[in-house]
Amino acid sequence: MKPYFAFQWHITDCCDQRCKHCYIFSEGNCTELVSMPLEDMKKIISNCEDMCEKLNRTPYYYITGGDPILHPEFWTLMEIIKSRGSKFTIMGNPFHLSEDVCKRLKSCGCEKYQLSLDGMRDTHDSFRKPGSFDCTLKAIEYIKNAGIMCAVMSTVSDANIKEMPDVVDLVVDKEVDIFAFGRYCPTAADKSTGIEPLEYRAFLDGLWKKYEKYRKQGKKTYFNLKDHLWTLYLYEEGIFKIPTSAEDGMIYDGCHCGVCHMTILPNGDVYACRRFESKVGNAFKESLADIFVTKEEVYRDFDKFEKCSKCELRGFCRGCPAVACGTSGSFYAADPQCWKEIE
After folding, report:
1. Do residues 321 and 334 make contact, with C-beta atoms less than 8 angstroms apart?
2. 4 — phi, psi (to 5°)?
């Protein structure tokens, strides 16, 4: 296969929840709920396919919202994507899932359904709404019974970091296929993750040992090291080594912003990354290929990174620039949880 290009496609703003850490509804944003019309969704698919053909990539869709299943043309879109032979993941809520719904998703070609768990019952429900935790556990069963991969994603902050080991135990017990977490992305100057750098390293160290224990036991859950500071941790532990063939200035891994990912909103606006203010164009009015090549170039100016540009892991890590931007206002600032000292 040609390398994938990921499109995080928000087809609707409609949602059953108003999660405390949600960047879509933060700071009074998104006062008008928009759902992308069917004809416009068809145009988006054509635009994505055109871009990937020009860049020799294969499109991969992460269909989300809001809750994408609340879109009035959701099932029509599923059939269209299926007819195009494209692969996709659904990132949504658990509330409208059932055995029959998940079987229908499977028949449409859904590879994976991603749910959220942001702590154990009381903590998770305090972020989302009462009953969300138990509903999520039931939805995991529906998804797996339908033969769809089930992914669980957690958003980590000082409010739930101590519960993450228990969440890992839970997803392993439920035989979730994939588990990952990312850090809370601040949306205003008065907000932060509340996590100190060395505290975060100790957190990663504890989880790595838990992951290794479960791997040795042959557990089925795959632990996706989504947070790029995992690379720094594994490098310091001697587990990750910079390949001898690595070329200076080349980007091999790390943050996908401006490299192999973009976000499309229900009104057609295109963001380099949805986790911070990074509008680069509109997919109804412009070619996505042109947006990627010209307007997203600013996010590929890796020499501007204040700390990462001086680090030997520049081509493999770069932390999370969205968290850096939410904390300091600058995409190029140092990741606030990065503990590495740069001379």
Report:
1. no
2. -75, 150
188 vs 27, which has greater pLDDT? 188
**What is the arrangement of strands in the sheet containing 87-91, beginning at the earlier edge strand?**
222-223, 178-183, 149-156, 110-116, 87-91, 58-64, 4-10, 261-264, 269-271, 279-282
Q: In a 3-state reduction of DSSP, which class is residue 155?
A: strand
Q: Give dist(CA 257, CA 274) in Å, integer.
A: 10
CA-atom Rg of the chain in angstroms: 20
Where is 77: in which H helix or E strand?
helix 74-84
Nearest to 155 by CA among 107, 108, 91, 101: 91
Q: 1-33 pLDDT, tens per residue?
A: 479 999 999 999 998 876 555 556 555 665 678
Cα dihedral across residues 244, 249, 255, 256: positive or negative = negative
pLDDT class of 219 with cuts at 50, 70, 90: very high
Q: Is 158 left (phi over 0), alpha (psi -120 to 50) or beta?
A: alpha
Per-residue pLDDT tens digits for 26-49: 556 656 789 999 999 999 999 999
DSSP string, 206-224: HHHHHHHHHHHTT-S-EE-
CA distance 301 to 215: 38
CA distance 157 to 174: 24
Cis omega before residue 182 (within 30°)? no
How does pLDDT run across 54-105, given as a tens digit for each residue? 999 999 999 999 899 999 999 999 999 999 999 999 999 999 999 999 999 9
